[in-house]
Amino acid sequence: MAGTDAQKDRWLPPVREGRSLAAFALSEPDAGSDVAALATTAAPDGNDHVRIDGEKTWISNGGIAGHYVVFARTGEGPGARGLSAFVVDAGTPGLEIAERIEVIAPHPLARLRFDGCRVPVANRLGKPGDGFKVAMATLDVFRATVGAAALGLARRGLDEALDRASGRRLFGAPLADLQMSQAAIADMATEVDAAALLVYRAAWAKDSGAARVTREASMAKLFATEAAQRVVDRAVQLHGGLGVTIRRQGRGTVPRGSRAADLRGRQRGPENRHRAPDAGRKVRGRAGKGRQCRGGL
Ligand SMILES: Cc1cc2nc3c(=O)[nH]c(=O)nc-3n(C[C@H](O)[C@H](O)[C@H](O)COP(=O)(O)OP(=O)(O)OC[C@H]3O[C@@H](n4cnc5c(N)ncnc54)[C@H](O)[C@@H]3O)c2cc1C
């Protein structure tokens, strides 16, 4: 997205061929939604290196990635205007996996510590001070993919609910014959299709060459992750007692889906974060300038 051809040739092929994983290291203990507050620094160290110091947290693929795109303060301007992005290869001295973070559903997450981590200036993505732009352009793509993953969970929840409602007999007839079950299934199917359309729109807008798709991607992520939580919760309800068992019975993955749907909602920023860009834009459009929340995953 922001790399030179040489940078792309060096870091992308192993990821594309599935031999290596990439990671995106933006969040910090005191800078999550408020990206402009990030405190990790990249200071000049000789003519052709920077020295990175600080801490990153909640980093997906942390500890298993082949390289990390790390956002650090380089001081070209205040707040968001003084950040740059650097590729740091795993194994670079001074980069340590400080903690592997366990969450409610399987997901590789880690806290990273940078202590005098020397990185060539040639690893910088984009111009000095462009880090915030690089981060936000990347998130335009990431958010739609989180929405797509949530859509997959929702579809699985709907499939399992349909299986169960067709096979389970209550009061002498299939559960699916009860009108309340049919209403629940109709709501689930509607949410799944609405989520799919928002995800497809964000992907289509990006593929059609739109410079920024922040609004479309935020809406897709927000709606699809919340819809997945509602759909999977309804699937849990339709399974009765089976919905909360841990061991596999039949397809039996609904409780795991419930935790995974919750996790997706928090990935790349909790829900309010995604209401902010759209609401902010609408309010500013009507009433001139307001307080602007910049960035956030
Ligand atoms: C599974 C998972 C994977 C992740 N992967 C990565 C990754 O790969 N790389 C990375 O850098 N980070 C990653 N993150 C971090 C994630 O992006 C942050 O958790 C997120 O940005 C929120 O930051 P925070 O946790 O510090 O919450 P905070 O910023 O402290 O937010 C707290 C609350 O404030 C709300 N809030 C925020 N902004 C507003 C607003 N404008 N108006 C109203 N309310 C608001 C939020 O919705 C939230 O409820 C991941 C997180 C999770 C859970």
Write the CATH homologous superfamily of the largest domain. Butyryl-CoA Dehydrogenase, subunit A, domain 3
Tally of alpha and pi helices: 6
Strand content: 15-25%
Ligands bound, unique: flavin-adenine dinucleotide
Shape: elongated
* Adjacency order of strands in the biggest sheet: 1-4-5-8
Multimerization status: single chain
What is the CATH C level class of the largest domain, in words?
Mainly Alpha
By secondary-structure content and strand pairing, the structural class works out as alpha+beta
Termini separation (Å)?
17 Å
Radius of gyration: 22 Å
CATH architecture label of the largest domain: Up-down Bundle
In words, what does this structure look like?
This protein is of the alpha+beta class and 297 residues long. The protein has six helices and ten strands. Strand 9 (169-170) and strand 10 form a beta hairpin. Helix 2 runs parallel beside helix 4 and helix 2 packs antiparallel against helix 5. The radius of gyration is 22 Å and the shape is elongated. Mean pLDDT is 88; it is low at 287-296. Flavin-adenine dinucleotide (FAD) binds at residues 24-27, 32-33, 58-60, 107, 109, 263, 266-273, 276, 293, 296-297. Flavin-adenine dinucleotide is lined by residues 24-27, 32-33, 58-60, 107, 109, 263, 266-273, 276, 293, 296-297.
